[in-house]
Design a protein that fits this description.
SH3 type barrels; 3-stranded antiparallel sheet; Alpha-Beta Plaits; elongated; 13 helices; alpha+beta
Length: 410
């Protein structure tokens, strides 16, 4: 038979059992409560699933980023290096978009809420795709830049290509996002076409310079470091940008040309000169004997051919100048370097001075002979006559008096 204390224990067990049953019933009731069309338990499971997806992707990104340096060496193939490079540059909002998409799959959502979540996830994914495309483009351009070495114009052209490509990528992704958001893309493109014409007319000069920069990059009439002459300006190409090209002149100042104006002018690119043609002339005295004149072309030819990196072309008695017998000499510098050309020309000039002096050939210089027909009468001013009379005590000889003139006529 039960003792006197058994009733108290049974009462406590009954109370505990009732409490646990109530808690279980409350919990089950709460989990079965409907919130936006789904039980709270389903929402909790969806949240846990989204958290698990986000955490797993984040850990995977950290793992890949930690080993990206090991697998991104030059000995690896380009696709492998690119994959690790993109994985290390993946953003957290992309993981959030995937987590939202995975979490909402197990829920029965209203069409409006499902549309909102799908659009948010899509926009985040499109942003990440745009970032991936930009990173891939940058990765490829960096490889090309390293392959080309110190080609600075190519490096400048990469900036132009990068700008245009990014503009196209983000424009396409924006259109895709707008289309998924329910925007009528056809009407938008038609409106943009009409507005684009107006914008193009307003920024015609800017677009002209932009396309001119692309022409410079593709056609390469010059590269950075080339010495060019544009109209009356000369200097070294320093920078080729989207709108302007900058030239460092010989005086040290920077000259800025718009790209469109630069392509409309005649450009003389001396950097691409393979050989330099040199023409110079000189003149000798008219009193030079004909036998010596005949020897001069051969003498000059020997002087020119004695120089290194020179190909002689011709030396001729060109014609009769106003005060000299004119000669013309043409030779080619096999090295187009300007300083070398000046050194060679200086050596030729000095050797010509030595040889011509030895041969008794005189260089002509501008002279004029004045021939006067008839007697010349020399007169002196009255002040000079008085000064000469006072200093010598006799009449000046510049003007003859009457007696002297009579004696002179006799």
């Amino acid at each position: 038979m039960p003792g006197p204390g058994d009733g108290g224990i049974a009462s406590q067990q009954f109370i505990i059992g009732s409490t646990m049953a109530d808690f279980r019933n409350f919990t089950l009731g709460a989990s079965e409560r409907i919130f936006y069309g789904n039980p709270i338990a389903d929402w909790l499971l969806a949240g846990l699933l989204a958290l698990a997806v986000w955490s797993g992707l984040s850990l995977m990104r950290r793992f890949i980023a930690a080993r990206s340096k090991r697998y991104s060496g030059d000995h690896r193939s380009t696709p492998v290096r690119l994959a690790f490079y993109l994985a290390g540059n993946t953003k957290q909002f992309f993981f959030l978009a995937l987590a939202l998409y995975a979490g909402q799959e197990g829920l029965m959502l209203t069409p409006r809420l499902q549309h909102v979540l799908a659009n948010v996830a899509l926009i985040l994914i499109l942003v990440q795709v745009g970032l991936w495309a930009g990173r891939s483009l940058r990765f490829y351009l960096e490889i090309k830049e390293m392959e080309r070495g110190s080609d600075r114009l190519f490096a400048g052209s990469l900036d132009i290509i990068n700008f245009v490509a990014r503009l196209v990528i983000w424009s396409l992704l924006t259109l895709v996002a707008l289309d998924n958001l329910g925007v009528n893309i056809t009407a938008l493109l038609a409106g943009l076409g009409v507005g684009g014409v107006a914008v193009a007319l307003a920024v015609q000069s800017i677009l002209g310079d932009l396309f001119a920069s692309l022409s410079i990059v593709i056609d390469k009439p010059f590269v950075i470091g080339d010495f060019v002459i544009v109209d009356d300006y000369m200097g070294t190409i320093e920078h080729v940008g989207l709108k302007t090209t900058r030239i460092r002149s010989l005086g040290g100042e920077q000259i800025v040309f718009s790209n469109s104006d630069l392509l409309k002018t005649r450009i003389r690119n001396y950097k691409r000169m393979r050989e330099r043609r040199v023409l110079f002339g000189f003149g000798v005295l008219y009193q030079t004997p004909i036998e010596v004149v005949e020897k001069i072309p051969a003498l000059v030819r020997a002087i020119v051919e004695a120089r290194q990196k020179v190909r002689f072309e011709r030396a001729h008695f060109k014609g009769f100048g106003e005060s000299a017998l004119d000669f013309e000499v043409v030779y080619w510098m096999l090295d187009p370097d300007y300083n070398l050309y000046m050194d060679v020309q200086q050596a030729i000039n000095l050797e010509m001075l030595r040889v011509f002096e030895r041969e008794g050939i005189g260089f002509a210089y501008p002279t004029r002979t004045l021939v006067i027909d008839g007697p010349v009468r020399v007169e002196q001013s009255q002040e000079k006559e008085e000064a000469e009379r006072e200093s010598t005590g006799r009449k000046p000889s510049g003007r003859l008096d009457g007696d002297a003139a009579t004696a002179a006529r006799r």
